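HUMAN: Can I see a protein plus its fold?

ASSISTANT:
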Amino acid sequence: MSLRLYGQSEEGLFHQLLKINKGGTVIKIYEAFYLWIPVATNRTDLFSFEDIVTKEPILNKSVNQLQKGIENPKNFDRHAFEKDIKLQRAHITKKISKEKYGLIESMN
């Protein structure tokens, strides 16, 4: 896979999110989060925090952390955010995998 394609893949976007989380501003983390979400969830209808929480409730904790971090960047806990987003990513990946497997099974 080329570097450009990797950067646009779920894994590449997630890696970028984690990298920005290490030292970027909360706004930059928020931007990276918004780039990663539609690719990770296979959804293009997530336009706001409310959409994400309603349509992908597993991400509620991360969304809340980002909202509070935007309001008060000094209180943003980067370590907790990274831990939570990694767990949420694992859940999303498992969910997507099950959906794809179910589709393949139904086609057979």
Observations:
- The chain has six helices and no strands.
- The CA atoms of residues 1 and 28 lie 26 Å apart.
- The chain has a mean pLDDT of 87.
